[in-house]
Structures are given as C-alpha cells and as structure tokens.
C-alpha cells in the first residue's frame, strides 16, 4: 500500500520507480518546463516523465539541475519518437535526448508508440542501451498485448514498463492482467481524463474523504498498482495531486470506480494511428 509520495514500486530488474510522478506533455520549453519541474520537486515529486516529442527535454534538464536535489534521487523518463524508430536512428535519438536533458544516465527509456515494422528494431536498440548502462530500465508506451508478444518473440529482455492511456473510462483490464502476469509495470498517462471528472461516483467518494474527484482517481490508480503521472503547471495543483496518501479507498469504492469503464479512449488508438 502506497503511503507517501516517496514510495516506489520495484521494476522487474530491481530498479525502484516512484508510484507518482509529473508528466510534462504540452509544457513549453520557454522557462515553463524548468519552473514546473523545479516546483514539482520542491513539492516532493521525485519522478519526471518527458519525451523527445514534447520538445521540452532541455527545460526538464534545467529544472532538475537547478532544484537542489541530487540527480540520483530523481527518476527521469524519456521516449523515442516515431520518426526516430529503427535501430541506428533510435540510438542517435537517445544521444540527442541525453544531451538535451544533460544527464549521463536516463532512468527509464520508452518506445513512444508501436510503429509497425519498426518497433522490434527500436527495441533492440533499447536493449543495447540498457546493457551498455546508459539507461537503468527500458519499456514501451501504448503497446497492446499483441505488440508485447512480438517483443517476447524477437527480443531478449521483457519490457519493464508499459505506459498507456489508463483512467476510469478506460481501465484496460485485460492488458493490466497480462502486464501483471509478465511482471511488466503498468503506468497511466492521461490519468485525469483530460479534466473529464464530472462523475457522480467520483464526487460522492471525494465528499466522504474531503478530496477532489482528481485525487480520488489518482488514489484509485495507485491502489490498482498503476504508476501514474498527472500533468499540471500550477504549483497548487501539483501539491493537490500529491495529497493522496492520507486516505484509502475501500474495495467497494474501487469496484464502483471500476464500473465506470466504457473502453473509451481520449487519445489515439495504438492499433490505428498515423503519426
């Protein structure tokens, strides 16, 4: 049971990854990313999730360097973008990300989307980076069960993390069960449903604990064993999102939230995207 913002899950290779982190999608690299990362770390966050495609790795790196916390206490994730997939191009893209972040080692490197015909070669590049010690853990993002099975057959290392769209309207039970049975840590992006939190169940549960619907959803994530990375640039909201360790949902409440599932995606379909 997660009881503090500093609590971590342990990935299949023994690396510790914080249960709650900050996502920085759409956070601008004009000073905003640096300020947001620094504010999050000051609020107690120790995990920052960025990506080459977010165009803010330099700002994230600056925020990490200026925060006053030792680098090895902060868990940094970035991702290989679709246009850079393939073996050699992924290795080159990683070097570019590492330079922009200003770090020697990246804690977690993910393949951003399962680009057909390319993601198995990209995975081979991630395996090399992992073996060479440039990344502490490797994983994927937006992979379905059949994509993961492809990596099992072609690769040598099982992904340690699968970061997917996950929230009460899209709880991905089959994928979650598969991940658990293969020791893959599920991680949620868009956990707060892009602000679509107006559901009676969430409001009622929140009222009981004196919490917002957003806090209820984030607590539900953690109690389901899912790492989560809500995004905010507002220092007060950053603190609110982290204030979820002083209450525990009952099994009945978790079941009520589970029942909201509609298999409804707010983002692209991993089996049908064209970018």
UniProtKB/TrEMBL annotation:
GO terms for molecular function: oxidoreductase activity, acting on the CH-OH group of donors, NAD or NADP as acceptor. Keywords: NADP, Oxidoreductase. Gene3D superfamilies: NADP-dependent oxidoreductase domain (3.20.20.100). Residues 20-261 form the NADP-dependent oxidoreductase domain. The active site is at residue 54. Belongs to the aldo/keto reductase family. This is Diketogulonate reductase-like aldo/keto reductase. It comes from Paenibacillus prosopidis.
């Amino acid at each position: 049971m997660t009881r503090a913002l500093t609590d971590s899950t342990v990935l299949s290779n023994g690396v510790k990854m914080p249960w709650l982190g900050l996502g920085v999608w759409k956070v601008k690299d004009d000073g905003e990313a640096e300020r947001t990362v620094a504010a999050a770390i000051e609020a107690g966050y120790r995990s920052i999730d960025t990506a080459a495609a977010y165009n803010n790795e330099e700002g994230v790196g600056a925020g990490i360097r200026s925060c006053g916390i030792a680098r090895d206490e902060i868990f940094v994730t970035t991702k290989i973008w679709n246009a850079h997939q393939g073996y050699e191009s992924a290795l080159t893209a990683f070097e570019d990300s590492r330079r922009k972040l200003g770090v020697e080692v990246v804690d977690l490197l993910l393949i951003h989307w399962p680009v057909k015909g390319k993601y198995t070669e990209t995975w081979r590049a991630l395996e090399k980076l992992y073996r060479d010690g440039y990344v502490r853990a490797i994983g994927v993002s937006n992979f379905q069960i059949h994509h993961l099975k492809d990596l099992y057959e072609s690769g040598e290392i099982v992904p340690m993390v699968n970061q997917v769209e996950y929230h009460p309207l899209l709880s991905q039970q089959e994928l979650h069960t598969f991940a658990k049975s293969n020791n893959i840590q599920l991680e949620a992006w868009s956990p707060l449903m892009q602000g679509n939190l107006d559901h009676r169940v969430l409001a009622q549960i929140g009222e009981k604990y004196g919490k917002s619907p957003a806090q209820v959803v984030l607590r539900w994530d953690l109690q389901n064993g899912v790492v989560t990375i809500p995004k905010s640039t507002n220092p007060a909201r950053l603190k609110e999102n982290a204030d979820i360790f002083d209450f525990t949902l009952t099994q009945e409440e978790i079941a009520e939230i589970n029942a909201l599932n509609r298999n409804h995606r707010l983002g692209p379909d991993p089996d049908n995207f064209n970018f």
